[in-house]
């Protein structure tokens, strides 16, 4: 497809379960970002991948959060032992050139019961 | 640390009236500034960006923004608002090249008939 896609669009899980969120970037975009959008907190950076460099994990809120990017393409954000405060919309964005904007996917709405 | 302030959480504008959404930033280096719009249930769409050069930038959907370094501001304007402009608007700042973005908390625009 032409844009960034994310799956699932909605995910409801029980507290303590693990979840995986997927991001399919625009083909050829070397930079990939994960952000979280929650009520009262706005949009927060989580993690950033650029090519083959080590990811910037400085925004991850706890060690329950991790992400990987396989083959420089698809990325998966994993949240272990989910908590209610993890409920949010998780947005993926990709960037194709250094002076271009980030293109955002539609997001995954995560609800932890 | 960089930050973005959008002082107005909600703004209501009559259809056909002019609009100005405020954005102030704090950034230690040359800022790269963005305005994104998010419709309900959608991802973020770029309206316009400022990297350098002319401080008045034109975007899509008839929007424009003016970078004022002395005031650390990047306000978004539209001369005549349409009902379809009702959405949430986010101002963001980043650095040159590949960079995570710092977002404001957003301004929700309501358009009255």
Q: Largest interface, with Cβ-Cβ < 8 Å?
A: A-B, 24 and 22 residues
What order do the SSEs of chain A take from the amino end to the carboxyl end, as H and E? EEEEEEEEEE
Oligomeric nature of the chains:
heterodimer
* Overall residue-averaged pLDDT value of chain B: 93
Shape of chain B: globular
Describe the fold and architecture:
The complex is a heterodimer of chains A (113) and B (113). Chain A has 113 residues and is mostly beta strands. Chain A is 0% helix and 49% strand. Chain A has strands at 5-7, 10-13, 19-24, 31-38, 42-50, 65-69, 75-79, 88-95, 103-104, 108-112. In chain A, strands 2, 4, 5, 8, 9 and 10 form a six-stranded mixed beta sheet that branches. In chain A, strands 1-3-7-6 form a four-stranded antiparallel beta sheet, with no helix packed on it. In chain B, strand 5 and strand 6 form a beta hairpin. At the A-B interface, strand 4, strand 5, strand 8 and strand 9 of A face strand 6 and strand 11 of B.
Question: What brief labels describe this structure?
Answer:
heterodimer, A: 113 residues, mainly beta, six-stranded mixed β-sheet, four-stranded antiparallel β-sheet, 10 strands, 0% helix, B: 113 residues
Helix-strand blueprint:
The complex is a heterodimer of chains A (113) and B (113).
Chain A lengths: L4 E3 L2 E4 L5 E6 L6 E8 L3 E9 L14 E5 L5 E5 L8 E8 L7 E2 L3 E5 L1
Chain B lengths: L2 E3 L4 E5 L4 E3 L2 E3 L5 E7 L5 E7 L5 E3 L5 E5 L4 E6 L8 E8 L7 E2 L3 E6 L1
Parallel strand pairs in B: 2-12
Antiparallel strand pairs in B: 1-4, 3-9, 5-6, 5-10, 7-8, 8-9, 10-11, 10-12
Short recap of the structure:
Chain A is built from no helices and ten strands. By secondary structure, chain A is mainly beta. Chain B has about 110 residues and is an all-beta fold.
């Amino acid at each position: 497809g032409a844009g960034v896609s994310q799956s699932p669009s909605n995910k409801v899980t029980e507290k303590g379960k693990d979840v995986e969120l997927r991001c399919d970037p625009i083909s050829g975009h070397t930079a990939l970002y994960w952000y979280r959008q929650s009520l009262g907190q706005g949009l927060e950076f989580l993690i950033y991948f650029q090519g083959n460099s080590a990811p910037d994990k400085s925004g991850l809120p706890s060690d329950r959060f991790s992400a990987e990017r396989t083959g420089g393409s698809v990325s998966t954000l994993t949240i272990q032992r989910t908590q209610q405060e993890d409920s949010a919309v998780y947005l993926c964005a990709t960037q194709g050139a250094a002076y271009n904007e980030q293109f955002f996917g539609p997001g995954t709405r995560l609800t932890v019961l | 640390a960089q930050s973005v302030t959008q002082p107005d959480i909600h703004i209501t504008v009559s259809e056909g009236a002019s609009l100005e959404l405020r954005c102030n930033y704090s950034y230690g280096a040359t800022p790269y500034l963005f305005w994104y719009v998010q419709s309900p249930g959608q991802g973020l769409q770029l309206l316009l960006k400022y990297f350098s050069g002319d401080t008045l930038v034109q975007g899509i959907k008839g929007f424009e923004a003016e970078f004022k370094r002395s005031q650390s501001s990047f306000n978004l304007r539209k001369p005549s608002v349409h009902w379809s402009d009702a959405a949430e608007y986010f101002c963001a700042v980043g650095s040159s090249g590949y960079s995570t973005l710092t977002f404001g908390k957003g301004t929700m625009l309501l358009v009255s008939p």
